[in-house]
Amino acid sequence: MHRFRVWAPGKQHVELVSDGRRAFMTELDRGWWEASDVVAGPGTRYGFSIEGGETRPDPRSPSQPDGVLGLSQVVDHSRHSWTDSSWRGLSLPGLVIYELHVGTFSPEGTFDSVIQRLPHLVDLGVDAIELMPVAEFSGNRGWGYDGVDFFAPHHAYGGPAGLNRLVDACHAAGLGVVLDVVYNHAGPVGNFLGEFGPYFTDRYRTTWGTSFNFDGAGSDEVRRFVVDNALMWIREYHIDGLRLDAVHAIVDQSPLHILEQVATEVDAVAAALARSVLLFAETDANDPRLVRSPDSGGIGLDAAWADDWHHALHVALTAERAGYYEDFSSPEQLGKALRQAWVYDGMWS
User: Fold this and answer.
1) 105 in a domain, yes or no?
2) Is the pTM of this model over 0.85?
3) b or e along 274-299 (b: 16 or more beta carbons within 10 Å of the residue's beta carbon)?
4) Is residue 133 part of a domain?
């Protein structure tokens, strides 16, 4: 038996579609719906029909074997026998991270093919790999920044079981795993979140798509969605750190910023698990509040990516001036970046 739950506030009725069987769900408090299927279990394909509409994947789908337009699949995370009980996470000072795109790191483009090449990474002397986004996105190959099924490791990479094996193998080899996560927008293809509830807002917009609703009506469950996603990677996949994509594009005017809420709850889970979990911000705002403690008026993240040196070097080599690069026009800026990483260290861009 498996119990299914979905958040769909304000809907008249919601149906569970489980391996072809249909059943009306029971409405609970705060817009949640629930139904149980006595024959469902790991491997069951399922989805939800809102008010008689097309069957859609679970917004919290743990697996999408047929991609973003297919049905979700029930996953039992306890089936993986972890061997990393002695692993205690990463230490930030001097940490050397190797950014890795699973789809292009090897000809096979899978989690398992990364495992085969871990000795090479160990020989390089890195301490951790940073996986570019693996949450389910449209197609078999892509950068990963247009994910739509945030809880599902990409099917073409090897899905949930493949990611479990990779993280376990990394820890056995003495390597940590940082995961790139995107909470500033969702991709266009297969994005059905808005059919379920007020996940997005038109009050803010990024250059990549509609922003998440972190501070408007119904935002409590949207915030829970993102926080639970961050915690899921840590609990179920033993991820050692999260690289938070383009946080300057996350707008939240709540008293408690969503990033601070993520940091607070991640710290609590890390303490309960007795291992470190690091949070890195990618930002072009160079805002020191990101890494200050909440007691000092900050967000409480562990570190921020220093992209200034990258941008300055890129401009020097390519002469490109668009987007992020428009503020990096002089050779002197490259010299400053190499000396101290930050070019814009309190000055206007």
Assistant:
1) yes
2) yes
3) ebbbbbbbbbbebeebbbeeeeeebb
4) yes
